[in-house]
């Protein structure tokens, strides 16, 4: 019986991959991360490509676990979604980001637009519009300064629900953007069904390797089409001057990327903004 037990144990061990164990450990730690205050937001500045002025920033979550160290959102967000933890985390992100953006407004006397990432699951929760409304109320951030970023897959997962929720969100006066555009279905006509304001071109789309002229033509055609549909275009992951030049020639509206600034902790963002020329 003892041997069988050991075998059984060994069998279980062998079946559970390193990956599955890591996931379990992460899930366990994730359940406590909020109450232990292990999350933090970093902000990546976003520029207007006509004026080259900073017009806003995207909030990006960071998790600093005392033992595991820094865990990438690419790793823990999917687990949080799957295990039903994303609603609470998303709520925290929204409130923290709105609070800090409001603080910047008061300190610098200028309006900066805040972009916050939403997961598919948050979009499916019926009280999302009320949550957002309550958050704007509580923090005093003007609605027109808030933009929510959604992925294409989140939008089309359940078209009826997402259309209804997005319409309600729009009545609050906030903006809506499609994140990672160019990686999924990317059917512009399809996206017209949703009340959207902005398309965010994915990094892989922005940094095409197929020669400068081709990629310029490609991006230009895309930007023109988006503009014809009354959507503004933001390029993400801009790392080189060549890419920047291409985007400006293509009349892309805004951009963010390491070329301008990495995502910064709040204090560093304040520092960054205070060094900019007044306007
Ligand atoms: P995303 O929304 O597409 O965010 C852009 C990612 O690209 C960020 O990674 C950012 O740090 C990185 N990035 C920005 N500029 C450059 C560049 O010039 N070059 C390169 N190579 N990378 C650049 P990060 O912060 O690791 O976030 C990864 C993803 O995690 C995000 O992708 C988003 O999908 C998700 N995420 C982050 N924060 C949140 C959040 O608060 N809520 C939700 N639901 N998801 C989040
Ligand atoms: Ca994003
Ligand atoms: Ca993106
Ligand atoms: Ca992404």
Based on the model shown, name its key terms.
single chain, 279 residues, 13 helices, 10 strands, globular, binds ligand C2E, binds calcium ion
Care to give the gist of this entry?
With 279 residues, this protein is an alpha/beta fold.
Protein architecture, described:
This protein has 279 residues and is an alpha/beta fold. α6 (128-139) packs parallel to α8 (159-171). The chain has an eight-stranded mixed beta barrel with strand order 1-2-4-5-6-7-8-9, surrounded by four helices. The protein is 51% helix and 20% strand. The protein has 13 helices and ten strands. The model has no long low-confidence stretch (mean pLDDT 90). Ligand C2E binds at residues 44, 60-61, 72-74, 77, 90, 93, 117-119, 179-180, 203, 236-239, 257-258, 263. It comes from Noviherbaspirillum cavernae. This is EAL domain-containing protein. Residues 23-277 form the EAL domain.
Structural class: alpha/beta
Bound molecule types: ligand C2E, calcium ion
Q: Main beta sheet: strand number and arrangement?
A: 8 strands, mixed, barrel
Number of helices: 13
Strand content: 15-25%
Mean pLDDT: 90
Low-confidence spans: pLDDT under 50, at least 5 residues?
none
Q: Roughly what percent helix?
A: 40-55%
H and E order: HHEEEHHEHHEHHEHEHHEHEEH
First-last Cα distance? 79 Å
Q: What is the CA-atom radius of gyration, in angstroms? A: 21 Å
Domain EAL: 23-277
Protein name: EAL domain-containing protein
